[in-house]
Amino acid sequence: MNTAKDVYTYNEKGIRVTEETFKMKQGSWAPVQQTHFRFGENDRRIEKKVENMVDGKWIPVKSVATTYNNKGQKTGIEYFAWIENHWTRVNKYVIEYNLAGKESIHWWKKWNRTTNSYLPKSKYTFFYSGTMRTGSLHEQFIDGSWVNSGQSKFGNFEGYQTVHQKWNGQWNNERRDQYVTNENGKYILKVVQRWHNGTWVNSAMHVYSHDDNQNIKQEIVQHFDVADFQNENKYIWIYSRGTESSKSELVSAEAEPWHIVYPNPFSFETTIRFANPEARPYNLEITDLEGRLVKKVVDIKTERYTIKRASMPAGVYIYRLLGDHEFKGRMVVQD
């Protein structure tokens, strides 16, 4: 049976302002955690506060404050914890920009309660050729000095490639992503490789196909076995532009005991939570209102699965979950 559920509330603009988590206790739903969001200019989130229910009272747990510059770019994220009945600084993430408005440095700092100040912990430095990012360097602050940790290099490979390296006294290859594009600059192939025994070994391959408007209509993902280099199809994404028809065709959501669904018609995603995905993997199919398959993914083994707006056009869809039971529900994706 259901053991937990989330309840969301939204303001008049359709922006989520609260989240409340309930758990089943002695046959009824009991609140266990609530989150409040506060927004500033242009509806940018500036604060997130989390509270837990303890002995019938809401007790603060953590808080996150976000700052922006006059261009609306995020400049800092500061994390607080409720310790000894007051808010205490914990960590801070600072973003700097170059004169072209591109991200130049990401600082990760940790609050030192002895010095009452933020001390550097790590940083990412980004490099550009004109406006094109060519690489990044990750460093950690250890014993008073900056020490190399990792780096990424971006370059051309019939289109584009990214090489990720780790520092261990010298730069060692770790992962390489290679891309091939079509004449319109759209990705048609992505090959992910791992560094193994002095050579690049295939890890995964993504093959993309597009419609006449250069929208992705299908993505085939294959994973490779390092031992025998035999590939195996893992999943296929199928995309469709889909047209909306009468909403009377929608199937209303009625929760089955093996999962909880949280459709959100206001934001750009729908999240599904599964009770025991490792023991019972689930399959997901999404169709438009004409019954045409839009997406399909198999063997979902995570506790939460989120369907994002970025990969789907606006519209109303039917999703079908297949596990121990079959479940139908609707999702709304808005522009």
Would you give an account of this structure?
The protein is mainly β and 335 residues long. Among the domains are: 156-253, Lipocalin; 257-334, Immunoglobulin-like, CATH 2.60.40.3080. 0% of the residues lie in helices and 67% in strands. It has strands at 4-10, 16-25, 28-39, 45-54, 57-68, 74-83, 86-97, 103-112, 117-129, 132-142, 145-155, 159-167, 171-181, 187-196, 199-210, 216-224, 231-238, 259-262, 269-274, 282-288, 293-300, 304-308, 315-322, 326-333. The protein has a 17-stranded antiparallel sheet, with no helix packed on it. A four-stranded antiparallel sheet has the order 21-20-23-24, with no helix packed on it. Strands 18-19-22 form a three-stranded antiparallel sheet, with no helix packed on it. β10 (132-142) and β11 form a beta hairpin. The relative contact order is 0.08. Mean pLDDT is 76; it is low at 226-268.
